[in-house]
Inverse folding.
């Protein structure tokens, strides 16, 4: 279990080493492990990653948290960035909240904007958002108060809270319950008639937005319109080329990364998330120091050069895993056919309505984390 803590902390640890060249005020605190509990007061920014993350102590700066389960009950003086299987925010946030999860609950006071994405998103009656609300998800319920405007897109959207400004809502079904209050105009687009229950109030009136040229079944179908289809096709072609070139240049290296994902999936995921977040932050901090400028440039060069191509390693892992399910006398070794199959599978998963973006992000974190975990061990 200590190994998990060590690997998950590499991303933030590397950022801490580099950030040491910056002014002391730019420091931050990192926590990682299978289960992370922060109950003490934190005077700086907090980076936390693990299987289960609970932050119940006050944090003076920003909070970046990722894990299978993330509970944020402490007061956050800065902004909040959170991602996980289940994310719950109950503590007050001094700036904006940006969160993504399979199940996401916001039940706190937020001084700035709230940008949320997930399969199930619930803005509870306890939530008070000081500026705008932006939500993308499957099932969305807005029961809290929004001080300005709301932009909501989902499969099922229910509003029974208060939006003081205007609202723009898109979904298969949109329902305004009796307690819903919208101070401005409601612009909507739905596949079925808008449901406004008796007692709901829309001060600025309602207006149906012009639907896109393609019908709803095309928008919801995998790949959707022609533009998205060609975009998905180009992405698949790029990943296929990267994967085949990498396998041709270093089959042993690609196999090592595949085995890293297979045996340390969670570690790769956490490490990848930590690297994606920590490297740009550390690079920005380095720009404030003369000696750190070239280091920041080199770090970002490696970061950008390996971030997106790392999806090819996730594809190779997925393809080899599927080929291994075929009964054979001798289990197959990773090869180019695994890359081809994996790219096809990922392209199809990326096109899944509402969930494709989350799968895309997960695959990116896993591949990126496994790649740099392997490099770290090699050096």
């Amino acid at each position: 279990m200590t190994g998990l803590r060590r690997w998950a902390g590499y991303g933030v640890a590397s950022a801490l080493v580099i950030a040491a060249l910056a002014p002391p005020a730019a420091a931050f605190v990192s926590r990682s492990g299978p289960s992370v509990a922060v109950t003490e007061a934190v005077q700086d920014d907090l980076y936390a990653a693990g299987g289960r993350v609970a932050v119940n102590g006050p944090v003076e700066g920003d909070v970046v948290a990722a894990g299978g389960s993330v509970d944020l009950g402490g007061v956050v003086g800065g902004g909040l960035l959170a991602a996980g299987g289940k994310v719950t925010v109950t503590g007050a946030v001094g700036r904006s909240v940006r969160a993504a999860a399979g199940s996401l609950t916001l039940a706190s006071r937020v001084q700035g904007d709230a940008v949320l994405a997930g399969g199930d998103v619930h803005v509870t009656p306890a939530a008070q958002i000081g500026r705008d609300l932006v939500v993308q998800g499957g099932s969305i319920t807005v029961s809290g108060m929004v001080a300005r405007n709301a932009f909501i897109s989902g499969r099922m959207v229910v509003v029974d809270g208060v939006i003081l400004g205007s609202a723009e809502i898109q979904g298969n079904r949109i329902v305004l319950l009796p307690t819903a209050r919208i101070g401005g105009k409601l612009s909507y687009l739905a596949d079925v008639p808008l449901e406004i229950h008796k007692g709901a109030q829309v001060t600025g009136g309602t207006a149906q937005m012009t639907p896109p040229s393609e019908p709803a079944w095309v928008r919801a179908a995998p790949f959707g319109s022609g533009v998205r289809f060609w975009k998905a096709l180009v992405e698949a072609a790029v990943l296929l080329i990267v994967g085949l070139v990498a396998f041709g240049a270093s089959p042993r290296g690609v196999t090592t990364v595949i085995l890293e994902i297979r045996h340390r999936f969670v570690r790769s995921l956490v490490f990848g998330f930590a690297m994606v977040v920590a490297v740009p932050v550390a690079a920005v901090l380095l720009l404030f120091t003369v000696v750190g400028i070239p280091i920041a440039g080199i770090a970002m060069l490696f970061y950008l050069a390996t971030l997106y191509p790392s999806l090819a390693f996730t594809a190779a892992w997925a393809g080899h895993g599927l080929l291994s399910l075929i009964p054979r006398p001798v289990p197959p070794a990773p090869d180019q056919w695994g890359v081809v199959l994996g790219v096809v599978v990922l392209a199809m998963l990326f096109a899944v309505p509402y969930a494709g973006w989350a799968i895309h992000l997960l695959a990116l974190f896993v591949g990126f984390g496994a790649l740099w975990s392997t490099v770290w061990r090699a050096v």
